[in-house]
Amino acid sequence: MIFFFEQLFIGLSLGGIYAILALSLVVIYKSTGHVNLAQGEMAVFSTFLAWTLVHAGVPVWAAIPMTMVASFFGAIALERLVVRPFNGANDLVVVAVFVGLFLGIHSIVGAIWKYDVKPFPSAFPNGAVDLMGGLTIRIHTLGSLLTTFLVLAATWFFFKYTRTGLALRAVADNHQSSRLSGVNVSLMLALGWGLAAAIGAVAGVMIAPVTFLDPSIGLAPLIFALAGALLGGITSPFGAAFGGLIVGVLEAMISAYVPYGVEFRELLALGLILSVLLVKPAGLFGVVVTRRV
Q: What are the boundaries of the signal sequence (predicted)?
């Protein structure tokens, strides 16, 4: 039983990271109608920025907000220069742009920081906590869970109680009506990209101490985050976060209890994606959109 609860906490910690990354996918999807396939690579780039700051002598907790700010403005520039020119293009063109972003950012990260594996310090103290009856949980695991809930709570507050958040929600629902109501749609789209990048940076610095840091660490979390977002509902921030937690727990349990389960983790994500798209495309909490033709 103790082993089960240990795996449950590990799964919730991983799921929290997937939830944060899934939330960043939802932010861009709700504002543009497209899934940003380069979101994981953007998070990796942000994590390497944090690694550079830490190795320059900046404390980890100071490097994280600095990285979030840099990621925010960097994503705005990326949206303006790379994505904006293809606004209104057909879906195939947009997918090609996102694939190009994925490959381009991955190559830039490799060219700057090389492809060797680098250790990344945890933002939390080393060691573990004995919770009950011999149940030992790493402090980083508990810290990742706390960070997840803080990010989700802050995002919920932003979208529900701030003028900018309400404007972003309006743009996500209807660009034309928002523009007629006086909302600067162009600015809101850029802010959506910046917010998604800042949220993704948090996911990157949370997972890097667990997996170590190299240019390839962004792909697997992106797949799991996409599975979580689709499971919970890619139009629902709460649903995407909930789906990310479920995916993390399932991954941990399969890795622990299924023979050779570690090798089948990506297959789990693929199976979830296909199952949701076939059975309930809107996800558990998503909104079904109908169009009159």
A: none
